[in-house]
Write a structure and sequence with these properties.
By secondary structure, this protein is α+β, with helices and mostly antiparallel strands. Helices cover 23% and strands 39% of the residues. The protein is built from seven helices and 17 strands. The strands form three sheets. Strands 1, 2, 4, 7, 9, 12 and 15 form a seven-stranded mixed sheet that branches. Strands 3-17-16-13-14 form a five-stranded mixed sheet, with no helix packed on it.
Length: 386
């Protein structure tokens, strides 16, 4: 019997100790996780992130030619490429939001503190608009705001805690948050221009890097000498008005000691019929004048293919190009003069339909090679860029 009583007394004592511990611990924070039960202060929260983005831009300008040798009045197409690229610099990372808590107990709760801590030990600024401690009546909800500056845009967790004293315990809640798009962007778009070509277009960061490609003619100067064409590509940003630029220079030379020479391919495309820009030297020869006994014009002869090795047209192409080069100011040599004299005699004798002996054909081809060497700059004053 004594053993039974001892057992009962021991059980009663343990129960009293447990009840006392529970009563003492009522002021502590209730464990978070899962659905909260009634009889405590339930905490809810949200998190809104923000940061600023500054765009920085660079510009580069390149061309496919750096130096040219041109005949007087000759123009040469230079292909340019302007590339712009943006890089982002982010700053002022913040997380803000609300912390709401409701007293679900049937009696008032004494709130002693509301805290908000971000992973990494970052303590947020909490504003509840009241002094602590304060009483939260049964069934009532209180809303606080919080704000914290962050060192970077890493994903983190955010824990809000409501502490109480007395019989109604507090609780806490933890939520994750991450950063999305910036709240503000500066200089995200630019306008790009070339000082000689004009406006190239508008580019925004989402299109970066972007390259503008375009062509401009260099030259067109009649006076011999050394020249340079420097043109500048620039950008200006849409917000701060920041600017950037890059310059590309093409040097070109017009020889004074006799103009350089150009090939039949150049003269074919630079007549008044195009497609390339007109070279006024043609006016001294005449595109539409009849070529000797051929019955067709100078222009037509130059565009007639010497298919099958037709010696007449092979010599005619070299002759016409050489004549135009000389009219354009290119000096000659004794060999070139002799080849031109032979060609004039040949064209005053034969037509495109004439049957040539082997010796005549070989002589015509040989003289065409002399003139071709002259047109290509292998002999004489040298070849122009084309």
């Amino acid at each position: 019997m004594n053993k039974i009583w001892k057992y009962l007394l021991g059980s009663i004592l343990i129960s009293l100790i447990v009840i006392g511990i529970l009563q003492v611990s009522n002021h502590r924070v209730a464990a978070s996780g899962g659905d909260p039960t009634t009889g405590i202060v339930i905490v809810k929260k949200d998190a809104k992130t923000s940061f600023e983005r500054q765009w920085d831009w660079t510009i580069t300008k390149k061309g496919d030619q750096t130096s040219l040798t041109l005949a007087p009045g000759q123009v040469f197409p230079v292909n340019y490429a302007v590339t712009v690229q943006a890089s982002a610099e982010d700053s002022n990372w913040k997380v803000t939001g609300t912390i709401s808590f409701q007293n679900t107990a049937s009696e008032p709760a004494t709130i002693t503190a509301v805290t908000d801590v971000i992973s990494g030990g970052i303590v947020a600024n909490v504003n509840c608009g009241v002094s602590f401690p304060f009483t939260l009546p049964a069934g009532f909800t209180k809303v606080c705001t919080y704000e914290a500056a962050l060192p970077d845009g890493s994903s983190r967790t955010n824990t809000a805690t409501v502490e109480t004293s007395g019989d109604v315990p507090g609780s806490s809640v933890t939520i994750p948050f991450s950063f999305g798009d910036p709240s503000t962007e500066t200089d995200e778009c630019i306008t790009v221009e070339d000082n000689l070509f004009g406006t190239l277009g508008t580019v925004c960061a989402g299109e970066s890097p972007k390259t503008f490609s375009y062509t401009m003619n260099v030259g067109g100067v009649e006076q011999c000498g050394t020249y340079e064409l420097a043109n500048v590509a620039t950008f200006v940003t849409n917000d701060s008005g920041s600017k950037g630029s890059d310059k590309f220079t093409v040097n070109f030379d017009i020889p004074c000691a006799g103009a350089c020479t150009l090939t039949p391919g150049y003269w074919k495309t630079h007549s008044k019929y195009g497609p390339a820009p007109y070279d006024s030297t043609w006016a001294l020869l005449g595109e539409d004048n009849t070529f000797f006994l051929s019955g067709i014009t100078n222009y037509q002869v130059l565009w007639t293919s010497p298919s099958g090795g037709n010696a007449y047209y092979i010599l005619a192409h070299a002759y016409l190009a050489a004549k135009l080069n000389i009219l354009n100011g290119a000096s000659t040599t004794a060999n070139v003069d002799a080849a031109l004299s032979y060609a004039q005699s040949f064209f005053n004798t034969y037509t495109p339909a004439s049957t040539l002996s082997r010796s005549v054909r070989n002589a015509a081809i040989a003289q065409a090679e002399v003139l071709d060497s002259y047109n290509n700059g292998l002999i004489g004053p040298g070849h122009c860029s084309q």
